[in-house]
Specification:
mainly beta; Immunoglobulin-like; 2 domains; 4-stranded antiparallel beta sheet; 12 strands
Length: 182
């Protein structure tokens, strides 16, 4: 499996913690690593792999020179979302979101989207979907988070893949709870 990582403009800090749960940086009891724009600038914009090496819970291996193949190892239970490549945040892309489920443990994450250009997320204009994997039932669930709403387009095509297996399912998320058995 080949994974290509691309950076998109962000307007807030990214918190990476070993607990795999979402929490504001000030409320995390364990050690965290925060890479905000100022920190990335201070480090003279190093490659993403070099930043991730310093984050708790991530293991990164680069094979060869910078710009060559980089491997990112993930824990059992991780759900890795991958979408079509965009050149900028508001670019319209025609392609499904692929959720790569790494079996072996339960896992969860929140899929967040806003318009990428304004501060309208502060006025409730965002979409946040809670995604959870139940390993023993081999079931993936998607539910809109409290206070979130579907953004255009109102239907999201999703491909669910299980890492290391040939299993693949497609689904359409329209804002209603969705359960997918794999």
């Amino acid at each position: 499996m080949k994974i290509t990582l691309a950076l998109a403009p962000i307007s807030e800090s990214i918190v990476v913690s070993a607990t795999r749960t979402e929490a504001p940086a000030g409320q995390v009891a364990s050690a965290i690593t925060v890479f905000d724009a100022a920190e990335i600038e201070r480090r003279q914009a190093p490659p993403l792999a070099d930043l991730l090496r310093q984050a708790a819970g991530a293991h990164v291996v680069r094979s060869g020179a910078p710009g060559s193949v980089t491997s990112l190892f993930v824990r059992a239970g991780a759900i890795v979302p991958m979408g079509p490549i965009k050149q900028y945040t508001w670019e319209k892309v025609d392609g499904p979101l692929t959720l790569w489920v790494h079996p072996g443990a339960n896992g969860a994450f929140s899929w967040y989207e806003d318009d990428g250009t304004s501060f309208d997320f502060r006025k409730g204009q965002f979409m946040k979907v809670n995604v959870a994997w139940n390993d023993s039932q081999r079931r993936l669930t998607l539910r809109l988070a409290n206070g979130a709403k579907m953004l255009a387009p109102a239907k999201r095509n999703i491909v669910i893949r299980v890492a290391g297996e040939q299993i693949s399912k497609t689904a359409t998320f329209e804002g209603k709870p969705l359960d997918i058995k794999l």
